């Protein structure tokens, strides 16, 4: 009888996947921890399951790389978790013996752990931390909007900490003009900022009451949140110190209760910044008094349940420091977008988002309520953001627009006309700045209009003598250059397609000559009128391409997948065009019906 296929003599060393990968139960046995602690360690250390090509123990197991398990085994955090687990047993034993005093004493002295060394280990440089900041920002912004529920172990203190971190991050982005894109979606508001050359995208939920479902494991999410809070705190610390601003900012709770008077807060931080420069070394007694004062302020914030750093509380935090930073061309353009624009927010608009994005692009903003920089009756207000069907009292010196106008101006990087966004009108479609229309193969009409306005803004067309502003408002007169550029691009595309076809034809002839077939017979058999006909479609060329027959099975499958993807993209474009045609037809029929009713 022969030996089994996978027979390994006793005592022989394991080889291959059996030696490189272990199951989750084996990893827990090696580390000698519970399943919950193992999950925490994996989340904190960035260890994730692997998919080996050959699963030795079966397909129903979760596998980890043995090097990752050894990496956790030698980490000091593992010993800390074991210490905490042993200490919790002492507390449980004291409660079982009804020794309440000992249980309280043990709870007051319970050991804790910090993630400082873990963060420094996972992110050796600051750029590494910025690259991995998308998920932390999204998670922290999510929990900043959640209600505190003891059943799910979501504490009030943690919610306040998330709000504090969010507003500190937003204050830095707003005052240094690092914001680049904004898109309002059903899930929430997508933001993209560029910090030190790294594009950071995050999602902030809408300011509404959040309903928590039971199908979400909040224990795992809270473990991620614990790491993300520490990481975002380190990032904020580095960003604030890079512009010579003290971190964390300790604010007066009275100012926060009044929605933070911007000018008083600016003076407070300017004085704090100057004091930090003039007195780099503080005596021990004064330092201890300052720490005591800061702790009292924090305690007052928690007692009054004031969310630390309200929107607007940090708007002018780094006003002087940010002006000292060298700005690139993109930052200067963003900084001057809403320059000399005073915008007032009505009470029904998303205040927190607009307070973040408008100052990030150079605008001055105010709102209804105490602590606002200026009131609604100020004559210098240029725009008022309103999100209601009608506006009662109207000031003739300002324009009333919907909130979408602000976001569309930010994405277009120009001041768009306010007429389509006036109160009571259906605004234009809100286009996503994260979608490449050219790559998708479909450019919406409003995107074309915005491009025309951008071209007109770049060319800086001045009115000719004898012409008024009404003629300049006509996009056809303003953007003749844009139409010329499009025709030139179309001609260049046709020439490129013709060259590609001729080149492919030449390669086919060479292949046929190599195979021993004369190309003269092929040329004589072609129709003489082929030059007058339009160029064949790209898909027909690919179908007739003999090189496809010479491909391997794997490459043919990949080629087929690419073709299917292009076909699906074409179908999506056709659906969009069909939907557009239906909408236009419905609008025409509605206009005819109204005219018939009037007549």
UniProtKB/TrEMBL annotation:
Annotated region (Disordered), positions in chain: 525-599
Basic and acidic residues bias (residue ranges): 525-547, 566-589
GO biological process: maturation of 5.8S rRNA from tricistronic rRNA transcript (SSU-rRNA, 5.8S rRNA, LSU-rRNA); maturation of LSU-rRNA from tricistronic rRNA transcript (SSU-rRNA, 5.8S rRNA, LSU-rRNA)
PROSITE patterns: BRCT (PS50172)
Ranges for domain BRCT: 333-423
Coiled coil: 77-104
Cellular compartments annotated: Nucleus, Nucleolus; Nucleus, Nucleoplasm
Annotated GO CC locations: nucleoplasm; PeBoW complex; preribosome, large subunit precursor
A molecular function GO annotation: RNA binding
Primary localization class, coarse: nucleus
SUPFAM superfamilies reported in the protein's UniProt record: BRCT domain
Keyword list, A-Z: Coiled coil, Nucleus, Ribosome biogenesis, rRNA processing
Family according to the record: Belongs to the pescadillo family.
Function: Required for maturation of ribosomal RNAs and formation of the large ribosomal subunit.
HAMAP family, per database record: Pescadillo
Name the UniProt record assigns to this protein: Pescadillo homolog
């Amino acid at each position: 009888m022969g030996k089994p296929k996978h027979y390994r003599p006793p005592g022989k060393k394991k080889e291959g996947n059996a030696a490189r990968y272990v199951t989750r139960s084996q990893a827990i046995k090696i580390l000698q921890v519970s399943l919950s602690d193992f999950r925490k360690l994996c989340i904190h250390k960035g260890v994730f399951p692997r998919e080996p090509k050959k699963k030795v123990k079966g397909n129903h197991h979760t596998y980890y790389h043995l090097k990752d398990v050894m990496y956790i085994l030698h980490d000091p955090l593992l010993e800390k978790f074991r210490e905490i687990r042993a200490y919790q047993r002492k507390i449980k034993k004291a409660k079982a013996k009804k020794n309440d005093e000992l249980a309280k004493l043990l709870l007051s002295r319970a050991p804790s752990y910090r993630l400082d060394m873990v963060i420094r280990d996972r992110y050796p440089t600051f750029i590494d931390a910025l690259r991995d900041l998308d998920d932390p920002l999204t998670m922290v912004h999510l929990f900043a909007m959640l209600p505190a529920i003891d059943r799910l172990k979501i504490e009030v203190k943690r919610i306040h900490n998330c709000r504090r971190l969010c507003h500190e991050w937003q204050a830095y982005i707003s005052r240094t003009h690092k914001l680049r894109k904004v898109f309002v979606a059903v899930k929430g508001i997508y933001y993209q900022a560029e910090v030190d050359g790294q594009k950071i995208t995050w999602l902030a939920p809408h300011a509404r009451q959040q309903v928590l479902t039971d199908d979400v494991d909040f224990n795992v999410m809270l473990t991620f949140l614990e790491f993300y809070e520490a990481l975002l705190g380190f990032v904020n610390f580095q960003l604030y110190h890079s512009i010579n601003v003290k971190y964390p900012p300790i604010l007066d709770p009275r100012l926060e209760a009044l929605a933070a008077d911007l000018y008083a807060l600016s003076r407070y931080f300017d004085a704090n910044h100057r004091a930090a420069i003039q007195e780099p070394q503080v005596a021990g007694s004064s330092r201890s008094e300052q720490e005591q004062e800061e702790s009292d302020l924090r305690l007052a914030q928690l007692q009054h349940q004031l969310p630390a750093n309200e929107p607007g509380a940090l708007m002018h935090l780094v006003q002087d420091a940010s002006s000292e930073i060298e700005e690139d061309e993109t930052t200067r353009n963003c900084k001057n977008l809403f320059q000399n624009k005073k915008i007032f927010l009505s009470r029904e608009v998303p205040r927190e988002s607009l307070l973040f994005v408008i100052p990030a692009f150079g605008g001055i903003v105010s709102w209804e309520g105490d602590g606002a920089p200026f009131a609604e009756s100020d004559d210098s207000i240029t725009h008022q953001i309103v999100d209601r069907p009608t506006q009662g009292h109207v000031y003739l010196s300002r324009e009333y627009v919907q909130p979408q106008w602000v976001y569309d101006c930010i994405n277009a990087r120009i001041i768009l006309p306010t007429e389509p966004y006036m109160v009571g009108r259906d605004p234009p479609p809100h286009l996503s700045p994260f979608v490449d229309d050219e790559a998708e193969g479909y450019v919406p009409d409003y995107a074309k209009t915005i491009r025309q306005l951008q071209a007109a803004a770049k060319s800086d067309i001045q009115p000719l003598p004898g012409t008024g502003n009404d003629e300049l408002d006509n996009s056809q007169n303003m953007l003749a250059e844009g139409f010329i550029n499009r025709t030139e691009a179309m001609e260049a595309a046709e020439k490129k397609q013709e060259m590609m076809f001729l080149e492919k034809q030449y390669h086919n002839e060479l292949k046929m000559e190599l195979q021993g077939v004369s190309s003269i017979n092929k040329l004589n058999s072609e129709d003489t009128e082929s030059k007058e006909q339009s160029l064949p479609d790209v898909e027909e060329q690919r179908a007739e391409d003999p090189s496809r027959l010479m491909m391997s099975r794997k490459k043919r499958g990949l080629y087929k997948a690419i073709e299917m993807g292009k076909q699906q993209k074409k179908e999506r474009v056709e659906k969009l065009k069909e939907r557009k045609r239906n909408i236009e037809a419905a609008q025409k029929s509605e206009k005819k019906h109204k005219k018939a009713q009037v007549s």
